[in-house]
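Internal ticket - ligand job 400, 4'-deoxy-4'-aminopyridoxal-5'-phosphate:
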Amino acid sequence: VFSHVVRGPEDPILGVTVAYNKDPSPVKLNLGVGAYRTEEGKPLVLNVVRKAEQLLVNDRSRVKEYLPITGLADFNKLSAKLMFGANSPAIQENRVTTVQCLSGTGSLRVGAEFLAKHYHQRTIYIPQPTWGNHPKVFTLAGLSVKTYRYYDPATRGLNFQGLLDDFGSAPSGAIVLLHACAHNPTGVDPTVKQWEQIRQLVRSKGLMPFFDSAYQGFASGSLDADAQPVRMFVADGGELLLAQSYAKNMGLYGERIGALSIVCKTADVASRVESQLKLVIRPMYSNPPIHGASIVAAILKDRDLYNEWTIELKAMADRIISMRHKLFEALRARGTPGDWSHIIKQIGMFTFTGLNPKQVAFMTKEYHIYMTSDGRISMAGLSSKTVPHLADAIHAAVTR
Ligand code: PMP
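stdout (structure tokens):
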């Protein structure tokens, strides 16, 4: 009965790793997926995560019972505090509902399902370009996806006027997906001044902001600084949704740990919204897993562990920034034609190189370097040892 099933395509991002794994070359390099690697090219488990796990193992009172549908209560409270700030009026007034979800993706999906059921506008505007999974997550949740202008290939920066024009002509109440910081794939973020203009326009048009925060701490190295755009939107008293992921900033990729927060106008509304989120979650996966949430909660609630985390996080962010400088210098040393300053200007895990799909294919075939066909490279996958190989490949691709 399944013989008619046609083979589906590989995921454009995860498929890069599938191809990489098949390549026997000893010099192969995977810059596709956005996962942090050490200077030695190895995945990193943060020391603070190991410590928190040890605490959990040693605590004999811990059991493996089901969590509530909404997840671990401590984790939810601490996650909201991490983004909105310790003194956030919205938290103090109990206007925020936070539910533990399956990492960033699951948080986006639960938020989108809620909006499709309970919000009067079904249209969501996502940036052009954006993370490849966004359109699928929102479409399958029942929203109708449109794009707004975001990236300007000519300047390799923000198309701010295009963004304002597209928000300005969006129907009142439309949902707008905003990357909280370290925009994926472009590495281009609005300035604080631009964020303020965006906020004013969003609020004056009654648009519904849905923030996707997958990289808090990775843009500037500071958790608070990276939370600033979201905090500006909370400070004005308006509503918003927020999807948080701990995949990158705690290196908890496979634990699938994240949170969805909905900031409401009153505590009463927030509690009714939460009751509906439970009805979204229960038939999907009943309740979320306990381990990742316990790790995050242990780190966020202990001052020493929290401080240790911020130091390790900053070290990851700094290593990525140093890779940006090394790659930029290596291209300059080779006299590679073009302006490559965007490599050091862009923010977060990725550089949007400007290489076209043909150049990318050439680099994969001749140099065994793997990346998404839009020319996005994960700076976190580079090391001092591999930068020269990448620079050689880029040089060859643009001069052939
Ligand atoms: N949003 C963005 C912008 C991302 O880059 C990612 C991860 N690549 C996610 C959400 C979701 O990641 P996860 O589900 O692993 O937390």
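Auto-summary: The chain has two domains: 14-44+316-393, 66-301. The chain is about 45% helix and 15% strand.
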